[in-house]
Design a protein that fits this description.
By secondary structure, the protein is mostly helical. It has one domain. Helices cover 75% and strands 0% of the residues. α2 packs antiparallel against α3 and α8 runs antiparallel to α9.
């Protein structure tokens, strides 16, 4: 168990980062005005085009796993835009913000959400224990624990840090959130896509932490009007998880 003094210092630092993040967000909202959350590209898709995208994802997901599901998410977003005659680069929010924003904001947000992630993980553990749900590692973590060669580890790292963040953000924040925003309030869309993000990983103990992550990803997308900071934050989260699994395998179980 960590020394209580060190734990208190870490907790205070994380609380401070959270406070700074809240202050910066409030300042950004004040600068942009009441419509700050709506100044993000929204995908206005008809039923046919969204059906094309989601059907392509479902068909690929039913017969595949891992990289192919990531391909399905990317294909769904691109095909939906194509069917609607939209430019995916613009419609999905793949416009580039200032480089400083992409480089500096995601690490700050990650530090700010560490405490909420920790609290949600503890709460998830207590709920699973009360409901007698086994608190076991995710399937991908179990797969990682079975890797035994540098090439396998490198391939897994590329999938986790590059492929997954890009494909999942294009699908959840770019496609679903952008589409939902076209016919429902932005806040409701943020809530729904965050819950979906937590649910589709099919792992009850990770549902709350992943929902918190999904909420953070949606908010950084809204605040920056670009998908790239969300991709960067997602990549930082996955990289930190990968490093933790490598250095402290006892934390994720066997």
């Amino acid at each position: 168990m960590a020394d209580p003094g060190i734990a208190a210092v870490i907790a205070a630092a994380l609380a401070g980062c959270t406070g700074i993040l809240v202050w910066l967000t409030a300042r950004q909202r004040a600068r942009l005005g009441p419509g700050w959350a709506d100044r993000v590209p929204s995908i206005r898709l008809d039923r046919f085009s969204i059906g094309v995208g989601l059907l392509s994802f479902c068909l690929i997901a039913l017969v595949s796993f891992g990289a192919m599901i990531a391909l399905g998410m990317t294909a769904a977003a691109l095909l939906a835009c194509r069917a609607a005659g939209l430019n995916p680069w613009v419609a999905l929010g793949l416009v580039g913000p200032r480089a400083r924003t992409t480089l500096l904001l995601p690490p700050l947000v990650y530090l700010g959400i560490l405490m909420p992630l920790y609290v949600s993980a503890v709460l998830s553990f207590l709920i699973c224990a009360a409901l007698h749900i086994p608190f076991e590692p995710q399937q991908l973590i179990r797969l990682f624990q079975r890797l035994d060669s540098p090439s396998q580890l490198a391939g897994f790292a590329v999938m986790a840090v590059i492929v997954a963040p890009v494909s999942e953000e294009m699908f959840f924040r770019g496609l679903l959130h952008g589409w939902f925003k076209s016919f429902m309030p932005t806040r409701l869309s943020v809530a729904i896509t965050s819950l979906l993000f937590g649910a589709v990983h099919w792992h009850a103990p990770a549902f709350l932490p992943l929902t918190v992550l999904g909420l953070s990803l949606a908010l950084i997308y809204e605040a920056t009007r670009s998908l790239w900071p969300a991709i960067a934050l997602h990549a930082i989260f996955n990289l930190a998880t990968l490093v933790t699994m490598t250095l402290f395998p006892q934390l994720v179980g066997k």
